[in-house]
Each structure stands twice: as structure tokens, then as C-alpha cells.
Amino acid sequence: MQWLSKLKENLSGNISENLSLASITSFKVGGPAKVYICPRTERDISEIMSFSYRESIPLWVLGGGTNVLVHDNGLSGIVVGTSKLRGMTWEVKGPNVYVRVDSGVTLPELVAISLKNGWSGLEFAAGIPGTIGGALAGNAGANGRAVGYLAEWIRTVERDGRIIEWKKEDLKFSYRYSSVYSPSRVISQCCLKLDVSDRTKVLERFMEYKRRRGFQPKNKRTAGCVFKNPSADVSAGMLLEQAGCKGLTKGGAFVSREHANFIEVRGNARASDIYFLIEYCREKVYVYSGIVLDLEIKLLGGPWVYG
Predict the structure, then answer these.
(1) Do residues 123 and 206 share a domain?
(2) What is the value of pTM for the model shown?
(3) CB 257: neighbour CB atoms within 10 A?
(4) What's the sign of the alpha-carbon dihedral 113, 115, 118, 120?
(5) Is the separation of the CB atoms in 104 and 63 below 8 Å?
(6) Catalytically active residues, by annotation
(7) Which mean pLDDT values do the consecutive 10-residue runs of the chain (307 residues) have?
(8) Structural domain contains residue 228
């Protein structure tokens, strides 16, 4: 690969070749990244993006490795990991605190800091894994609350290396939707607006949200909810359970018996096993209810073949 030699000449930092993506994703399955880079600064991201754009190299973005399924054949081109983007500062202004945070900081880390300081606004995120960048890309949330609605601004690095700051009025969010998300765009930084509150009250609300999530599988190899809820009144988990999906197995993958909208893996599971269950469960729900479930997790690589 001539472009890889050019990349090494033009970029500082560690460049990994043929890195197993199973080692950095929550499902622990999937093939290797041809080239994997973890930039430390926004400028590093811009250089990587502009280089891949000029050289017409495929580019992928990977945050905390949750909420994704990587194909067994892996990913060609360059995979940009955001885990080393770790900066965070904050400023208290009257009743509010403005937290400026890099996209590689995890949501549990930010929730923990909020609890320690008595900042309100992120209690709903109790138990939600992944990075801030990934949470903004998918507008992660629970119980009608979501991360995107807290954003004052978001900075992104575009496919051609340009850096854009999106103001609050430029952003649109809805259930598991973010206008700033694109597979070939890197969210680099954001500012979240939280409320100054009482630590005891913040902790009480956090524990209540955590209790509501208590029936979901913990410390298992999952990627979070597989499907989006069809509506506010109809949950994907309920439809999957009613359609008889709980406990279905394919290879090393199975539909969780704790919550039907989670797929767990064990042993030598393959991404193809998980994908088979995804499509099979979607079929069963459609036959049962006439509803086609939309994916919440993102499929990376492919082509994906069901059968």
C-alpha cells in the first residue's frame, strides 16, 4: 500500500496495522482494521481526514466500541479511534455549568464527575456506556431524555479535514437521531450545559434511573439495544419478546433472556452469527406485528449477508 508509506511520513503518532477490532469493541467480535490510528488532538484528526480524502482512502470512525457491529472481514482503509481525545474543562456561570469535553471522554466518566460536583442534567445516563462523541452521534438517552438536548455547540472534523463548529440553533435532535452524525465525520469536541444543583438530589435521581435500567444485562458481551423503539408507546423489547425471540441462538450469539432487545455473545462468536439473529428477529417481529424494526446499533463493513 503506497498510501500507507505516505501516511507514516506525514503523520506523527502510533499507526497500527491489521489491529483486531474485536479487542476494542463491546461485542468482542469482528475482523481487523487495515490501519488504525488514535489521534490526540483535533489537528491530528484534520490531517488524517484530509490525507484520506486526497488519497481516496475509505475511512471509518470508532468511539468506545459500543453500539457497533464490525464485519468478520474487518475494515479496509483507515479507522480513526477517538479514545485518546480526553480533554475536559468547565465553567460555572450562575445556575449553570458549561462543560467543554473532548469526544473520547466516556459518558460514565462525565456522569461520575457530575455526581461528584452536584451537576444536574445527566442523571438519565446512568448505565449508558460509550463515549461522548458516540452518545452525541446517536443521541443516546433513556426515559425521554437524551445527550443531544444538552449540547450548546459541537465541533466536527469533516471528510476533507475542515473543522466546523455547529451552534445550538444549527443542531437537530430527536429519538436516536442527530443531524451532526455522518459515517465519515468525526465529532471532536462539544459543550454541554448542565445545572448547578444539590449533590444529594442529583444522586437520588441518578439511582432512580439506574434502578429502571436494572433489568438489562450487565457485564455481558453486548452492544446495547439492538433495535430502536417503534414509538413512544411500543418498545422493541416488548415486540421481540412477544414474537418469541428471547433465547434464540446462532453460533456463539443469543438473544438475552433478561431483555429481548439485547444480543449477548460468548465463546468464539462471529459477527455473522449476530447479524443472522438481527435479521431473523426482525422477520419474526414483522410476521407477528407487521412492524419493521430499525437498527439502533451501527453495522460497520460488509457486505452483510443473511442466510
Answers:
(1) yes
(2) 0.94
(3) 12
(4) positive
(5) yes
(6) 176, 225, 296
(7) 84 86 96 95 95 95 95 96 96 98 97 97 94 97 94 97 97 96 95 97 94 81 96 95 97 96 94 98 98 97 93
(8) no
